[in-house]
Design a protein that fits this description.
It is a single chain. With 416 residues, this protein is α+β, with helices and mostly antiparallel strands. The protein folds into two domains: 17-171 and 227-316, BirA Bifunctional Protein, domain 2 (2-Layer Sandwich), CATH 3.30.930; 329-415, 3-Layer(aba) Sandwich (Rossmann fold). The protein is 37% helix and 20% strand. The chain is built from 15 helices and 16 strands. The strands form three sheets. It has an eight-stranded mixed sheet. It is elongated and about 90 Å long. It starts with 16 loop residues before the first helix and ends in a 9-residue tail after the last strand. The structure holds histidyl-adenosine monophosphate.
């Protein structure tokens, strides 16, 4: 084979694509119920947009972005996530001037050059939402509820919601100093990876996947215990909205996200049906980001969810509808004359909205019947010289095996 798809990318083939349509349909229906409007942004953007928003020292920016110089020597990057692009579009198109609160959603491909493994791709797909213009904790709770509603609509009810507050510019610096002091004291017992993060990205140390690290981090100070009054009140309100709504959740003081733009709320939803890459979705509040990207100060909150991981869970739980839906009618042609008639008649029926298939390979009647069966067609009609001269034929229901006579000029009536 001369050309193969690039490592970490996948074709979505017929038979699989139906699962994607099923997921996308649920996403659109739920988003509409919550009054979010779809936005589509370009697949690549100026590199600085991402390094500035996601954070210069994050893994995404330092190791994972697909960045290249185009022919005009401009540095561009395939989008590793959706939030930065949505905010850029929001600012550029003055969307905030049309209404004081803007609710947007998106579905599309994202790109990160990570080491491919189950549930981790280099081109993957996310759906997500961003609400811009309000500091209300109700929107933080709404984001979590939307994420869970989409899973519920698809039949998944056993996910785990973890919530934390990562503070703000006022309370985080003081906490960071405390954390660095603590981490320095136990540095020699931590993995080299964690040691190297202490100075540059100390919060990410909390996220270490190493069990030994986690044991040693047991007594580490947590941001949630050092929040300023505003952040603390916000966090309490988010949690009580979840409590009142009967939304099960767990406070996870070590939850830090791989993107630097968060303030106050951060959350993640995991599934035990997944392996080591168990995060189905993540999100949080980012009250400073719009301003940082050159817009007017505008608070925001959002989430994004991985579609490949969701489909893995749906498959594992056998929650996917049967893949193929065959054409409703297959017209078998018995000879050359019938073939010409069948071609024209199938065009008319399709124009009436009926899914019809015919033979294009000059196969025998028997082979055409076999093909209709393979395609799981609902009805089959055989047309030959006798049918054309009498103007009527026999139609067979492929599920029940029942046969009935039908006028060739009235095939449409079978489907009304
Ligand atoms: P994120 O946590 O980086 O957040 O990604 C969200 C979800 O995308 C993950 O939970 C996971 O399901 C999926 N995902 C991420 N990387 C990969 C990968 N390499 N392969 C397969 N799936 C992946 C964000 O992207 C933020 N923009 C979320 C957000 C929106 N925060 C506020 N608004």
């Amino acid at each position: 084979m001369k050309y193969r798809s690039i490592k970490g990318t996948k074709d979505i083939l017929p038979g699989e694509v139906e699962a994607w349509q099923h997921v996308e349909g649920s996403v659109r229906r739920v988003m509409q119920r919550f009054n979010y409007h779809e936005i589509r942004t370009p697949v690549f953007e100026t590199t600085a947009l991402f390094s500035r928003s996601i954070g210069e020292l994050t893994d995404i920016v330092t190791k994972e972005m697909y960045t290249f110089r185009d022919r005009s020597d401009e540095s561009v990057t395939l989008k590793p996530e959706g939030t930065a692009s949505v905010l850029r579009a929001y600012i550029q198109n003055n969307i905030g001037e049309q209404a004081s609160l803007t609710k947007l959603y998106y579905i599309g491909p994202m790109f990160r050059q990570e080491r491919p493994q189950a549930g981790r791709l280099r081109q993957f797909h996310q759906y997500g939402a961003e609400a811009l213009g309000s500091q209300s904790p109700a929107l933080d709770a709404e984001m979590m509820i939307i994420t869970l509603e989409i899973y519920r609509a698809l039949g998944i009810t056993d996910t785990m919601l973890k919530v934390n507050s990562v503070g703000c510019q006022r309370c985080r610096p003081r906490y960071k100093d405390l954390l660095i002091d603590h981490l320095k004291k136990i540095a020699s017992q931590l993995t080299p990876d964690s040691q190297s993060r202490i100075q540059n990205n100390p919060l990410r140390v909390l996220d270490s996947k190493d069990e030994g690290d986690q044991r040693r981090l047991r007594d580490v100070p947590l941001m949630k215990d050092f929040l300023c009054r505003e952040c603390s009140e916000h966090f309490v309100e988010v949690l009580s909205l979840l409590d009142e709504g009967g939304i099960p959740h767990q406070i996870d003081g070590k939850l830090v996200r791989g993107l630097d733009y968060y303030t106050k709320t951060a959350f993640e939803i995991t599934s035990s049906a997944l392996g080591s890459q168990d995060a189905l979705a993540g999100g949080g509040r980012y009250d400073l980001l719009v301003e940082e990207l050159g817009g007017k100060p505008t608070p925001g909150v959002g989430f994004a969810a991985g579609i490949e991981r969701l489909i893995m869970v749906l498959k594992k739980k056998e929650l996917l509808p049967s893949a193929f839906r065959g054409p409703r009618l297959y017209i078998v042609s018995a000879d050359k004359n019938a073939r010409r008639w069948t071609f024209q008649r199938s065009m008319e029926l399709r124009r009436h909205g009926i899914a019809v298939e015919i033979d294009y390979l000059e196969r025998s009647v028997k082979a055409q019947m076999r093909e209709a069966n393979r395609m799981a067609c609902e009805l089959v009609l055989i047309v030959g010289e006798r049918e054309l001269s009498s103007g009527s034929g026999t139609i067979k229901n492929m599920t029940s095996g029942m046969e009935s006579s039908v006028a060739l000029s009235q095939l449409e009536s079978l489907f009304t």
